Amino acid sequence: MTANRDLILAGVAGGGEAGNALAWFAPKGTTLPTAIDDDLDAAFLDSGWVTEDGLKKAVSESTNDVKGFGTQVPLRVLTTESKVTFEIAFLESGVVPLSIYNRLSIDTGDILTPDGNGRVDFTEGRRRTIEYAAVFEIVDGLNLIRAVVPALQVTDRKEQSIKAGDPITYGVTLTAYPDDEGVAIHWFYQLDALAS
To answer: How far is the C-alpha of 144 from the C-alpha of 65, rounded, in Å?
Structure first.
């Protein structure tokens, strides 16, 4: 195969009708899409605008070198741990970003619901461990990348800087966990340059 510049992808836009939707969240156990063009279950909620940093995927791995007598180099390297995290910072002070940032349930009936004046309230201090399902979509022209995460949890919250002229952001690190079949992330790619 020869070099193909059309296979060099960039995070140009998000999914959704407006092209700015990057992340959707639903309660863990929600029916997940099984193809790149599947519609999302109605339980998936759009998180709204995110910062220009977009979505960052990080991989942390641990290994064990297997050494043999008479050699200074490993005979094998065994991967003993592989952890995938996503970092994202929400720009909107909406129900979904507030819920995810504060580890609140987004189950129907439990989700923050504004009153007629747009008021919501919640507390901090009690330990909360909420797992969500998520879908991330990245669009570059006719190319699409979709990551479906059956279970993830907020494992770090970024500090908030509140000062004149700057938006209040809600930055989180989300750790992906495997489902019952051992799948932590299902990646889907639609690459126009490979279409026949």
So the answer is: 38
